[in-house]
TrEMBL record:
Domain Apple positions: 97-190
The protein's name in its UniProt record: Apple domain-containing protein
InterPro entries per the UniProt record, alphabetical: Pan_app
PROSITE patterns: PAN
SUPFAM superfamilies linked: Hairpin loop containing domain-like
Cross-referenced Pfam families: PAN_1 (PF00024)
Species per Swiss-Prot/TrEMBL record: Mytilus edulis
């Protein structure tokens, strides 16, 4: 976990271990981790014509031309394949022109003459690597990394003081308080054995569907550091948080998974599941893997469910759904649900709405 203060970003391509092009961007006034890659933020380019007054682009973004999968794409114009002009591109696939078809994808293409070139004349070569670097003015985290006793670092953004700590803000038992000056800047992710590690946090009212966020089919906006820390710390979190470990689930030695909901920073329900014999990052959420629930009747012999899965009742957008029966809205019976879209029923208020849903793992 790191609160970055990134001043500049550099993009470079390499051929035979030699840098063949590079650009430097200012990172001021950016939010998402794609915003800096734009004409407005360009501070330097090895392509001398890119900083020429009046130069225009039909593409200058990381997303690029999404329809034909040209990414990190900086291009001057489309005039039919033989006359397309540009500077660099990452071809994630080849669709339309002879110059991007039949390559080994992704392919990193760069013009070789330090100015824009005509793609179809093969004025470009393919690089061996693309690298992105950041320039960060804050050394506080480096001090913590160099100190074997340091577990986390706090930073005062007003006085520029650096405070090293032997406690981890990832530990639910630790006391973490932030204000307008002091923030948790960095922490080592190593936790004591048998600790619960937060890997996903859902925040209500974001407008981004929780299920899509969990399975990774949508890109999440940049989250506050508070989203990575235990909910009980009461730090600001206005979006969902998703740890990349969810993308490599089957390769991890995850023993147990805990799901919890919080109201006013207090845990109001929780369940623990075994993660044995699971492949996908959704398989563990089932009655067969349930080992504990704060709902005591869920472990009663003979209890039945019409839904018990993360996918839930897809047509009506009920996710992480554990329900006993449908019998018409007035007699539906269940335990928990995440409503990703408007419910099909106007339920009586036998339930409350939580402030956060958190998923933890134990290795």
């Amino acid at each position: 976990m790191y609160r970055f203060m990134i001043l500049k970003v550099k993009v470079a391509m390499y051929k035979d271990s030699v840098m063949v092009m590079n650009m430097v961007f200012n990172n001021t006034d950016t939010g998402l981790n794609t915003d800096w890659y734009s004409q407005d933020h360009l501070a330097y380019s090895s392509y001398t014509d890119m900083t020429t007054f009046g130069i225009t682009y039909n593409f200058f973004s990381i997303q690029g031309d999404e329809a034909i999968e040209r990414r990190f794409y900086i291009n001057n114009n489309y005039n039919g394949c033989p006359f397309d002009m540009g500077w660099i591109a990452v071809f994630d696939y080849g669709f339309t022109c002879s110059y991007d078809i039949g390559l080994q994808y992704p392919a990193f293409a760069y013009m070789t003459n330090n100015i824009m070139g005509q793609w179809d004349l093969k004025a470009f070569q393919l690089a061996d690597a693309l690298a992105i670097y950041i320039q960060n003015t804050n050394k506080c985290a480096s001090y913590c990394l160099a100190d074997i006793a340091c577990v986390s670092a706090n930073y005062n953004f007003v006085t520029n003081q650096c405070q090293l700590s032997t406690k981890s803000p990832l530990d639910e038992t630790a006391s973490v308080v932030e204000d307008n000056e002091w923030k948790v800047l960095f922490c080592k992710k190593d936790l004591p054995p048998n600790s619960w590690e937060l890997i996903f946090r859902g925040t209500p009212g974001t407008g981004v569907k929780l299920y899509d966020s969990y399975v990774g089919t949508v890109s999440l906006p940049t989250h506050e550091v508070g989203c990575q820390l235990p909910v009980t710390h009461n730090l600001t979190c206005t979006t969902h948080y998703r740890d990349p470990i969810l993308d490599i689930w089957s390769s991890q030695s995850i023993l147990k998974v805990k799901v919890a909901m919080y109201k006013d920073n207090v845990m109001v329900m929780n369940m623990v599941f075994n993660n044995t014999d699971t492949g996908l990052n959704t398989d563990w959420y089932s009655p067969d893997h349930l080992v504990y629930s704060s709902y005591t009747d869920m472990t009663t012999v003979g209890i039945t469910y019409n839904f018990f899965s993360i996918k839930g009742d897809e047509p009506v957008g009920r996710r992480f759904y554990i329900n006993k029966n449908y019998g018409g809205c007035a007699v539906d019976v269940g335990w928990i649900a995440v409503y990703d879209s408007g419910p099909g029923c106007t339920y009586e208020n036998a339930f409350q709405l939580a402030d956060a849903l958190a998923i933890y793992i134990q290795k």
